[in-house]
Design goal:
The protein has 378 residues and is an alpha/beta fold. It is 20% helix and 33% strand. Strands 10, 11, 12, 13, 14, 15, 16, 17, 18, 19 and 20 form an eleven-stranded mixed β-sheet that branches. A hairpin with a 2-residue loop joins strand 17 and strand 18.
């Protein structure tokens, strides 16, 4: 293994060894606290433009397989681990994780002090970084310093489908749903089709009239990467759909729904990335352990004409041009908004990933709730 280096935009150096492709990768460095699911994480389009540092110390031990891929290739631009397994041991394994990453041209560093890196990101925030092999620190530092911030960038246009496509359920079709692809994961589509929903996946910039032309029983707004505010065409489309068809949004889809309602979003210091985030349901106090991957949050107060992004000031409900909107969930780590519901417009959303790929299944009933609301077959 060749020596490798990661340098953050503030000039901090982290040394390790290369086990992936050679060369240089650059992007925003974030940490993920999931214990398993590394293949799902690296192939999640929500990680476009990011370098993922895994906090779990040993990665790759059960190998990889095609069933766990969330897209046709990895979307994270780089990976950092404390230890990369040299062997894969699982009856499901179809090859090594390191070989999979190298085959897809992903730059990977192992033997990195990921505890120190995580503490640095927590203290100073997610920031641009560069990592590579056969390159000196000064060159990497220059690349990192020149790497643009995530804020203000449209990353969705690089991951969305170029043309609509359709996925059928097995058995009776109970509903027809249009899914906006902001970076949709395969297991999300499966979560819908497993419930008898036929899914037409459309590009992110699809206009409201074009979505309605499919005569859907509902609209799904998917996860995706980056800052939601530059996605003006998608925001306008969702605004045009509100009140006309039931809507369910997750992750970036939740943020876009919030923007369509008139709220604003803000960047979190280091985001929520992992499979162990506690979220409280406001209506009954029940806590769900959730899978999350996002760097921005909705300031629901701004939809009512004020701005109180501080977690303690998330309003329980407010009036908007689309009727009454209530906060349904909040994050127990930092208090930020994790869910909302439009009582008069048949729309709801959550900030986390109820399909749990990877992660716990506590919130899978949200798909049942959506399916029951759009179903037209017994």
């Amino acid at each position: 293994m060749k020596p490798g280096v990661l340098v953050t935009a503030d000039g901090t150096v982290f040394r390790g060894r290369s086990v992936g492709a050679e060369g240089i990768a650059r992007g925003e460095v974030v940490f993920n606290t999931a214990m398993t699911g590394y293949q799902e994480i690296i192939t999640d389009p929500s990680y476009a433009g990011q370098i993922v540092a895994m906090t779990a110390p040993h990665i790759g031990n059960y190998g990889i397989n095609g069933a766990d891929e969330q897209a046709d290739r990895p979307y994270a631009v780089g990976l950092v681990t404390r230890s990369m397994s040299r062997f894969d041991s699982s009856w499901r394994s179809e090859g090594s994780f390191a070989g999979f990453l190298a085959g897809h041209g992903i730059v990977v560093l192992t033997e990195v002090d990921t505890r120190r890196l995580t503490r640095h990101v927590r203290r100073h925030g997610a920031m641009p970084a560069a990592l590579g092999t056969d390159v000196d620190v000064a060159e990497l530092a220059a690349v990192a310093a020149a790497t643009p911030e995530i804020v203000g960038r449209d990353l969705v246009s690089g991951v969305t489908t170029a043309a609509p496509y359709r996925r059928e359920p097995n058995g009776v079709i109970r509903a027809e749903v249009v899914a906006y692809d902001f970076g949709i994961k395969r297991d999300i589509i499966t979560a819908l089709t497993d419930r008898g929903i036929a899914v037409t996946v459309v590009p992110a910039a699809t206009a409201a009239d074009a979505a309605i032309s499919y005569s859907p029983d509902g609209v799904f707004l998917s996860n995706g990467p980056g800052d939601p505010e530059p996605l003006t065409e998608s925001i306008v489309a969702v605004r045009g759909l509100l009140g006309k068809v039931p809507i369910f949004g997750i992750c970036l889809g939740h943020q876009i729904l919030g923007l369509a309602l008139g709220a604003t979003t803000f960047k979190l210091p280091f985001g929520h990335h992992g499979g162990n985030h506690p979220v409280r349901r406001r209506h009954d106090g029940r806590v769900e352990i959730t899978s999350q991957n996002h760097g921005f949050a909705v300031d629901l107060s701004s939809a009512g004409g004020s701005t109180h992004a501080a977690p303690a000031n998330v309003p329980p409900a407010l009036e908007t041009p689309f009727g009454r909107v209530v906060a349904t969930h909040h994050n127990l780590n930092d208090g930020t908004l994790e869910g909302l519901a439009c009582r008069d417009a048949l729309a709801f959303s959550v900030q986390y990933h109820p399909e749990a790929a990877p992660g716990p299944n506590d919130a899978s009933t949200l798909f049942d709730h959506f399916a029951s609301g759009v179903s037209h077959a017994a």
